[in-house]
Write a structure and sequence with these properties.
Number of helices: 22
Strand order of the largest sheet: 2-4-3-6-7
Number of strands: 7
Structural class: alpha/beta
Shape: flat
Length: 478
DNA sequence: CTATGGCACGGATT
DNA sequence: AATCCGTGCCATAG
């Protein structure tokens, strides 16, 4: 049945083909602009605001709408089972008619933050909880802190404060850690808690934040020490730790700093075009892939047009028919775009399952050409589909889709591991041999390049603990 | 003499 | 057709 459905979607004209190609290479946000432009110029095209698609609703928690396909489709694969559905993003309230004027980067950050956070947590929330999360996120101030009190919000939403607190806790652990806290103090505590999982933290830090916030912010350490009944040195150490590692205003300080992302093209913040998440915890879980559609509702040809077409006289008929054809074409192209991306992601996910779940080390070097062959499409098609798109991984990290095709990422990761635990600084030649021992055959010269990419100093400048400042200085020089 | 970085070439990618 | 990436060759630094 699906087969038949898509048979009808095969490109029929060169115009169709060209438009599909164009749409294929667009990001979710670019697509949104495109759709809006089309909607405003073509009266035959209509966006039906159906927020829920029954089938999606059953499978996805919450309101995963299926905007483009009027018949929602979920395909299952044998190996990792993949559900794919376009997914909606709403852009808060108001300001829909904004013309792209990137003059003010800061304001765009403010506008993006709620969406960015919502995307991370949405998969983990139940339907009702999503509503709460959305409400909280629309009430953030520019620092990423809650502008309303939890009590007020709970009253407004007609829920128990405890329910809202639960949602808030989840939000606070999303990427700008501490976001959605009620106060700087609260944000710090959340950050401290998260940090404590991986680092050792000064014992005094928590108490200082809890009890000595005002003194801390005024840097009155002596007074603080007296109040804590602790030595001044300890207090200063803790204060130092706090100012170095924590941030009372989660939204400030470039939360897109994506450390360790290995891609030099790391844009500040991505809007993911595709989201990969796990359907549940544990090893037997399946992967769920969502293709983002940036608008609510179903896009279709306005059925009224068909009727009117019957009843008008000839000269008007021509104009109407043209609009209708354009609209139909657009919808087809859009469907084809999503279909192509869907098939692509099925390939990618089943090939790179280990990479998605276990990390960069397990990336398989795959070429676009190979995927294109499996998909029986031209490699330039794959190329277009892959470029300029961002994927959000199950762990919340957002990376370019192109990194799935990075031929050297796994080698570089292993290289990093070797160097991180080396007993003495290995020379590039030794590193090359060690890598070969692990099955990575790379030339000595290439090892040097990878080192540079990872910002690791050459052996002669590397003494045991490679200091950050040194390596950063080195990076700057490149 | 050894370890690295620069330049250039060929194949893959876009 | 233009560009990027892995490599080999060679010059330079220690």
């Amino acid at each position: 049945m699906l087969q038949a459905h898509y048979q009808a979607l095969r490109p029929l004209t060169t115009a169709h083909l060209a438009q599909t190609m164009t749409l294929l290479s667009l990001t979710a946000s670019e697509l949104r602009q495109q759709i809006e432009a089309e909607l405003s110029t073509n009266p035959a095209l209509e966006l039906v605001d159906e927020r829920r698609c029954p089938a999606c609703h059953r499978l996805l928690p919450g309101q995963g709408a299926c905007p483009i396909c009027s018949q929602p489709r979920h395909e299952t694969l044998d190996e990792p089972i993949v559900f794919i559905s376009p997914r909606d993003i709403s852009y808060g309230s108001g300001s829909t008619g904004d013309d792209e004027m990137p003059e003010d980067r800061f304001s765009s950050t403010v506008e993006e933050l709620p969406v960015y956070v919502f995307r991370q947590v949405a998969p983990d929330l139940a339907v009702e909880e999503r509503r709460l999360a959305a409400h909280l996120l629309t009430n953030l101030d520019e620092d990423g802190l809650l502008a309303v009190s939890l009590i007020d919000a709970a009253r407004y939403l007609h829920v128990l404060p405890s329910q809202l607190e639960k949602v808030q806790r989840i939000l606070q652990h999303a990427d700008p850690i501490g976001v959605c806290s009620g106060s700087p103090q609260e944000a710090l505590l959340v950050q401290l808690e998260v940090l404590a999982e991986t680092h050792t933290i000064p014992s005094l830090a928590e108490r200082i934040i809890r009890e000595g916030m005002s003194l801390l912010s005024r840097r009155q350490y002596a007074e603080l020490a007296r109040q804590m009944r602790a030595p001044l040195g300890k207090v200063q150490e803790a204060a130092r730790f706090i100012s170095d590692n924590l941030n009372p205003y989660p939204a400030r300080s470039a939360w897109g700093e994506t450390r360790h992302s290995t891609q030099e093209t790391a844009r500040l913040y991505y809007q993911p075009d595709i989201i990969i998440s796990r359907t549940g915890p544990g090893s037997g879980s399946q992967l769920m892939v969502e293709i983002i559609m940036p608008l609510y509702g179903t896009l279709r040809v306005n059925p009224l047009y068909r009727q009117v077409l019957q009843e008008t006289d000839k000269e008007q008929k021509e104009a109407l028919r043209e609009d209708m054809d354009r609209a139909a074409l657009f919808v087809k192209c859009l469907q084809q775009r999503n279909h192509t991306i869907q098939r692509l992601m099925q390939q990618v996910v089943s090939l790179q399952r280990d990479f998605i779940l276990k990390g960069e080390k397990y990336l398989r070097p795959a070429t676009r050409a190979q995927i294109a062959q499996n998909l029986e499409v031209h490699e330039s098609t794959v190329s277009r589909a892959v470029s300029n798109k961002a994927v959000q991984m199950p762990n919340g990290r957002i990376i370019p889709l192109a990194s799935f095709f990075d031929r050297s990422l796994n080698v570089r990761t292993v290289l990093r591991e070797i160097i991180d635990s080396e007993p003495y600084p290995f020379s590039d030649t030794e590193l090359a041999n060690l890598l070969a021992g692990q099955g990575f055959q790379v030339a000595r010269r290439t090892v040097a390049k990878y080192r540079a990419m990872e910002g690791i100093l050459p052996a002669n400048l590397r003494n045991g603990r490679s200091s950050y400042s040194a390596s950063q200085e080195h990076q700057r020089r490149l």
